[in-house]
């Protein structure tokens, strides 16, 4: 999918289908997927269900990559192993606080980089 330039943009447990004893894994619901605009950055940040949303999306940047899908996959794998969401924020503000409580607070250089992505 990513090799073809497609970003799913809404990976969550409900969109991962398992068949048999984990022998076959399929991704479904491509309604939010698209080929990302990596040069013009005309991508909407309002994608991905909140529990699986990467920090850069919560901060509102339209300049993201396929890494947002990989962030969601990490959250999904944690939830599959523990039967509880990794970042269960009730709002976007609480979501970013949940993420920072585990991932740590961003460094000043990361904040400056994020500012350039949002502009």
Tell me about this structure.
The chain has helices at 55-58, 67-82, 92-103, 108-118; strands at 6-7, 16-19, 24-27, 34-35. Strand 2 and strand 3 (24-27) form a beta hairpin. The mean pLDDT is 89. The protein is 36% helix and 10% strand. With 119 residues, the protein is of the alpha+beta class.
Q: SS-based structural class?
A: alpha+beta
Basic shape: globular
Helical element count? 4
| Topology pattern, helix = H, strand = E | EEEEHHHH
> Any idea what the radius of gyration is?
15 Å
Number of E strands: 4
Could you give the order of strands across the largest sheet?
A: 1-4
Q: How far from one another are the termini?
A: 29 Å
The helical percent reads 25-40%
The biggest beta sheet reads: 2 strands, antiparallel
Quote the average pLDDT: 89
Residue share in β-strands:
5-15%
Low-pLDDT runs of 5+ residues are: none
Task: Note the main attributes of this structure.
119 residues, alpha+beta, 36% helix
Which helices and strands appear, and what pairs or packs with what?
Blueprint: E1 6-7, E2 16-19, E3 24-27, E4 34-35, H1 55-58, H2 67-82, H3 92-103, H4 108-118
Antiparallel strand pairs: 1-4, 2-3
């Amino acid at each position: 999918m990513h090799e073809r330039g497609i970003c799913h943009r809404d990976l969550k447990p409900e969109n991962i289908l398992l068949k048999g004893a984990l022998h076959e894994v399929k991704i479904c619901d491509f309604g939010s997927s698209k080929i990302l605009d990596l040069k013009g950055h005309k991508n909407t940040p309002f994608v991905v269900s909140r529990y699986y949303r990467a920090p850069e999306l919560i901060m509102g940047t339209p300049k993201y990559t396929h890494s947002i899908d990989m962030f969601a996959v990490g959250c999904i794998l944690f939830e599959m192993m523990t039967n509880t969401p990794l970042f269960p924020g009730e709002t976007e503000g609480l979501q970013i606080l949940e993420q920072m409580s585990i991932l740590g607070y961003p460094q000043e250089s990361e904040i400056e980089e994020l500012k350039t992505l949002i502009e």
